[in-house]
Amino acid sequence: MRDINLAIQFLNPIFEEADMAVIREIAEVGDFRSFETDEYLVKQGDIGDCAFLILAGNASVETSAYGETAVLGDLNPGDLFGEIALIYDTPRSCSVKAKSKVVALCLSRTSFQKTVIKDAGALHSMVKTLTRRVQELTDSAAKLAIVKKALHCCDIDSEVLKKIKEEA
User: What is the mean pLDDT of the chain?
Assistant: First the structure.
């Protein structure tokens, strides 16, 4: 499946400030990849050199620590992940595993940087996306710190548990 128009449809809100010609070019230089159910799109710890845009199918985001694995969330059509790899070499912080057959647009760092450098709107949109991710992670870290403190003190009242259950 190489559907440039579908890729453009999903890229448009991500790069809302970019020129349409640049969005089209991002879609055209991307590599369309297919993954089978239970196949990993990326693995935690591997060095990333591209970001992925889910075009079809669903995947789960998993992390492992201390011999345990936890599912952090799901990815659906239109979701972008791995965008830090567009900036620099760093190990993947999570694994992403296909829950169904997945088609994704792989955006390599080299192609992406050559394309977005042409448009300040594209760069600004990417900064906004990364900033949103930092804010989400900060919010999650704050909630985890409160849970950790409550568990450490063994002072868990029913209101705290109720809020945790609502957000889980």
Answer: 85
